[in-house]
Design a protein that fits this description.
Elements (H helix, E strand, L loop, with lengths): L8 H18 L4 H5 L8 H24 L1 H37 L2 H4 L3 H5 L1 H9 L11 H38 L2 H10 L16 H16 L14 H21 L8 H6 L7 H24 L4 H8 L1 H19 L8 H46 L3
Helix pairs in contact: 1-3, 1-14, 1-15, 3-4, 3-8, 3-10, 4-8, 4-15, 8-10, 11-13, 14-16, 15-16
Length: about 400
C-alpha cells in the first residue's frame, strides 16, 4: 500500500467513482439501466480493472526496485491471499444467508444466480474453493487473484526488455477470446480431466480477453518511474481528435439508444460485448483512456480534491466486498429491478446502499489509523533511542 503522503489522490478518486458506478449497476433498481455505462459502451469494470493494474504496477514495481524482487513477489502474493480470503468469505455468505433468504422467499433472481450450488452443493463448495465455480457477481475477485499471482513474473520479464512481446502475446490472447478460445480450451481440458463445473458456471468474464486490460495497466504502472525510462510521448493531434470523436459518438449513441447498441442485431452487439470485451468496446475504452492520460494532468490541477471519492478509493477492497454483500441482500429481498416497484423504494435502496459503502470506507480508515498508531510509537521510540545514543 502507498503511504498517505505519496498516494495519488486522483487515482483514489477515480477508483471511488468506479465503485459507485458498479454499485449503482448491481443494485436491483431502475437507476441501474439509466446510470449504467454513462460514458459510452464502457462499464466501470474496465476502468476499475485498469486502475487496479496500474496502481499494482506502480506500487509493487517500485517496491521491487527498492527492496528486491523477493519483496515484490511477497507483496503481490500477500495481496492474492487477502483477495482469496475475501472471496471465500463472500461465497460463505452467499451460500448460507443469501441462499437461505432466496429459497425461503422463492426469489428467482438469486436462485437462478446460485442454481449450480442449489443443484450440487458439495461439488459447488469444493469447486468454488478451487476458484472453478464462480457465480455471477462473485466472479470478479477470482480473476484478480490469478492476475496478482502472475503479475510479479510479468514485471520481472518486463524489466529485461520483454514488455513488447508480452503485450503482443496478451493482444493475441484477446483476439483468440473473440473467436472462442476459452471454450475451446475448456473442451480440450475435458479430454484430460473430468471438470465438475460447466463453462458458463466458471464466471461471466472471459479472462483471456480481460487480461489485456490488466496487462496494459500493469505495463503503464510498472514503467512509470522505471530508471532510464523515457517520458511517455505526447499523442499526436490526429490521434486525440480520433479518440475524442469516437468517445463522443459512443456517448451520444449509448444515451440515445440505450445500453444495447443495436437491438435485434446480435452481430453488432457482439462487437460491444462486455464479457468478451468486444473489439468496438475495447476501442471505446482505449479512446477514453487516451483522453484521460492526455487531459488528466490539467484536470488534476483544475479540479478540487474529491475527498468523498478518495475515501472510497483508498478502501477499495472492503468497499468492493461491501457493495457485493449489499447487492446480494437487495436481490434476495427485493428481486430484480421492475417498473412495478415504487420509485421511492428504488431511491431508498440506492441511497442506502451507497451510504453503506461510505460507512464501510470510514470504518476501514479508522481501523487503518488504529493499526498505524503502534508503528508510529515504535518509530518515535527508535528516534529517541538514536538521539540518546553516545556519539
Amino acid at each position: 500500500m502507498q503511504s498517505t503522503d505519496t498516494r495519488r489522490w486522483e487515482l483514489d478518486a477515480l477508483r471511488g467513482l468506479m465503485l459507485i458506478l458498479m454499485a449503482t449497476t448491481h443494485l436491483p433498481t431502475r437507476y441501474a439501466s439509466a446510470l449504467g455505462q454513462p460514458l459510452g459502451f464502457v462499464s466501470a469494470a474496465e476502468g476499475f480493472v485498469f486502475l487496479s493494474a496500474y496502481m499494482a504496477g506502480l506500487v509493487y514495481a517500485a517496491r521491487g526496485r527498492r527492496d528486491g524482487d523477493t519483496a515484490m513477489r511477497q507483496a503481490f502474493w500477500g495481496r492474492a491471499v487477502a483477495l482469496y480470503a475475501c472471496q471465500i468469505a463472500l461465497l460463505g455468505f452467499a451460500f448460507t444467508v443469501i441462499a437461505g433468504l432466496a429459497v425461503a422467499g422463492r426469489q428467482p433472481a438469486v436462485t437462478d444466480l446460485l442454481a449450480f450450488y442449489l443443484e450440487q452443493p458439495l461439488t459447488a463448495l469444493l469447486s468454488a474453493a478451487l476458484l472453478l465455480y464462480n457465480p455471477a457477481l462473485l466472479d470478479i475477485l477470482p480473476i484478480y487473484i490469478v492476475f496478482m499471482v502472475v503479475s510479479p513474473l510479468v514485471i520481472l520479464h518486463g524489466r529485461r526488455g520483454a514488455w513488447g512481446w508480452m503485450l503482443g502475446l496478451s493482444l493475441a490472447l484477446w483476439v483468440g477470446a473473440q473467436f472462442g478460445l476459452g471454450p475451446a480450451l475448456y473442451r480440450a481440458a475435458l479430454q484430460l480431466v473430468a471438470l465438475p463445473v460447466r463453462y458458463h458456471d466458471m464466471g461471466a468474464f472471459e479472462i483471456l480477453a480481460w487480461q489485456f486490460v490488466w496487462m496494459l495497466g500493469l505495463w503503464m504502472g510498472a514503467t512509470h518511474h522505471e530508471p532510464g525510462q523515457a517520458p511517455s510521448p505526447r499523442a499526436p493531434r490526429w490521434m486525440l481528435a480520433l479518440a475524442l470523436s469516437l468517445a463522443l459518438v459512443c456517448f451520444v449513441w449509448r444515451h440515445l439508444v440505450g445500453q444495447e447498441p443495436l437491438p435485434g442485431v446480435p452481430v453488432v452487439n457482439l462487437m460491444f460485448d462486455k464479457w468478451t470485451l468486444g473489439p468496438l468496446r475495447l476501442l471505446n475504452f482505449l479512446a477514453l483512456l487516451l483522453l484521460v492520460v492526455h487531459f488528466g494532468p490539467r484536470l488534476r490541477q483544475a479540479l478540487p480534491r474529491l475527498r468523498a471519492l478518495e475515501l472510497l478509493g483508498r478502501a477499495a477492497l472492503p468497499v468492493f466486498c461491501a457493495h457485493l454483500v449489499i447487492s446480494l441482500v437487495a436481490l434476495a429481498l427485493l428481486g430484480e429491478a421492475t417498473d412495478r416497484r415504487s420509485w421511492w423504494v428504488d431511491t431508498a435502496v440506492l441511497v442506502g446502499g451507497l451510504a453503506g459503502l461510505w460507512a464501510v470506507a470510514w470504518a476501514s480508515r479508522g481501523l487503518d489509523r488504529l493499526r498505524q498508531r503502534p508503528r508510529a510509537k515504535d518509530r518515535r521510540r527508535a528516534a529517541v533511542r538514536a538521539s540518546d545514543a553516545p556519539r
